[in-house]
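To whoever is on call:

I kicked off a structure prediction for a single chain this morning and the downstream step that reads the tokens threw a length-mismatch warning. I double-checked the sequence; it's 412 residues and nothing unusual in it as far as I can see. Pasting both halves so you can look.
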Amino acid sequence: MRSEIIAVGTELLLGQISNTNAQWISSRLADLGIPVYHHTVVGDNLERVSATFNQAQERSDVVIVTGGLGPTEDDLTREGGKVVFGQELVEHKETMEKIQRYFDQNQKRMSENNRKQALVFKDADVLENSEGMAPGQIYHHNRVLWVFLPGVPTEMKHLVNNHVIPYIRSKFQLGSQIVSEMMHFIGIGESDLETKLHSFITSQTNPTIAPLASEGEVGLRLTATGDTTDEARQKIKDLKHQLLEYVGDFYYGSDSITIEETVSDLLKEKELTIGSAESFTGGKFLERMVSLPGASSICKGGCMVYTAEMKENILHVPKSLINEYGTISYECAEVMALKSKELLNVDIAVSFTGVAGPSSSEGQPPGTVFIGLQIGEKKTEVYKYHFHGGRDQVRIRAVKKAYEILFHRLKK
């Protein structure tokens, strides 16, 4: 069974809102074992909407459409379906009474265009929308099942959960189950990961393997099908075990886990405490740590020392060192890590100093970053990086890199 999801609305193409509906619907269809082959977004233009619907009619078995069911002239989903299906639109009595009742109860005058929301295809199964005005519709055209849903997420989700999923379960003999797992890796690039796993990726069948790059890390999405969910999960488990033999050193967890959660778990496991001294990052490292449950057991606090004066007064970085090397240097990052460990009385201290941009500072170009790491009584480690991007991107990337360093140190 092939399915696709079409979102109608120019606002999606303009980037004014994100197409989160398609993501959510895809996950629900995956739960049923129905693969989604296409996501399409089309603007509020009747010719393009009709062309998109015609294409879906030719290539899919199930088509779910969201949006374009409102009362205004640019809500063209019904009209697009009318062109493709050759089906008459009629006013749904119960929906029209509901709309009229809403305006009466709120002592408002109903404009004539609101009647448009009650229009449905003549032979459609109408789905009552208890969360909004426009109803959902299920319509069969030739061999294809079409589902029309409002674009408002709360309305769409209500209709899918309470009407669409039960309808599909009752009408179709659902076969294989689909299960996915997203594996997260840090400290290895996408190209290197693909190279190490080349034989797996080129020979993939079931499960399939899809590499995905994100900010400062790489993911592998494993997707398996099976007659049962347990069978599909076992296939993923077996493949995952094989993959970790090659790239296990870089793997920090799966699905919704974040790198800071993994680092937090490692700190708890080893009964270590941590603190930070942050300059240009403005406390972002500590913020991500303390947002986690149970952070107080490992995180004592931190110092936000943005200026040279604060570095001197709070961390007691020697003025002579700053005069000689500057605040954006190996030497300053080293002392910041060492002094913050002493001040906060923690097992591990991380320091950040650098130039977020947009202009240079102390002769260092934007994106220059020094990260200091003090673990116990070991020699202080300092790492220098140059990150591209705007101010926020540089700060985010620096913090992510610090968690990457910690992860690899704590795994040893």
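Update from on-call: the warning came from a stale cache, not from the record. Cleared it. Sanity check on the structure: DSSP finds 15 helices and 17 strands in the chain.
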